[in-house]
Amino acid sequence: MDTAQTLLLNQGFEPIKVISWQRAISLLFLGKVEVLEEYDHDVHSVNLIIKVPAVVRLLRAFRRHARPVKFSRVNIYARDNYKCQYCGRKASISDLTYDHVVPRSQGGLTEWTNIVTCCYLCNRKKGGRTPAEASMKLLAVPTQPNWVPAVAIRISLRSVPEAWRDYLYWTGELDTSPPPGSGTGTA
Fold it and tell me: Do the Cβ atoms of 61 and 10 come closer than 8 Å?
């Protein structure tokens, strides 16, 4: 019971993050959330019994404090939509690297405005030259984003509570077959 967690949704029923059930109850008593789904477990106090919230929704919109987007490899890939900025090929993280538009050997800095997502083939082709010197063209000028490129809640499908399933967006089909070794299913 101590490990039970609660899915927090925004006003539009979109998942924001996973919080502890204790934090969810605090938000409930502060009047900041409504409970949409509950677990079967109860929490007891001297004069109160309450079901543990499984899914809660914020009643008011909130503003995140504007912070600059952290410069990182993953955020560069997200900014560039996981596409090589020279050939336009979309790829997985394992098939991408980043490239200094103006090479460091020519004074180029490792910063938002000089780094782009690049596939390994284009990176080798460009080498230690500028795009013009390598007769290559950038698809977009690199800029520092003022938005968080990717917000994701990563949850293992096997550990998702049943109460959350209607509130999460899946990128693939849900596997409804039993886990391996359960003895029920086809071989």
Answer: yes
For the residues 138-164, what does the mean pLDDT come to? 74
Query: % helix / strand / coil in the chain, to the nearest 5?
Result: 20, 25, 55
Assign 57 to helix, strand or coil: strand
Cα–Cα distance measured from residue 92 to residue 84, given in angstroms and rounded to the nearest whole number: 11
Distance CA 85, CA 20 (A): 41
| Domain ranges for the chain | 5-63, 64-147
How distant, in Å, are the alpha carbons of 59, 69, 104, 121 from that of 149? 26, 8, 25, 25
Please give the Cα distance from 71 to 75 (Å, whole number): 7
* pLDDT number for residue 158: 67
- What distance in Å separates the CA atoms of residue 7 and residue 24, rounded to the nearest whole number? 9
User: What tokens were used for 114?
Assistant: 């000089």
Count CB-CB contacts under 10 A for residue 9: 21
* Residue 92 reports pLDDT greater than 50: yes
State in words which class domain 64-147 has: mainly alpha
CA gap 105, 118 in Å, rounded: 18
**Spatial contact of 67 and 35, defined as CB atoms under 8 Å apart:** no
Q: What confidence score (pLDDT) does residue 68 get?
A: 79
Do residues 77 and 93 make contact, with C-beta atoms less than 8 angstroms apart?
yes
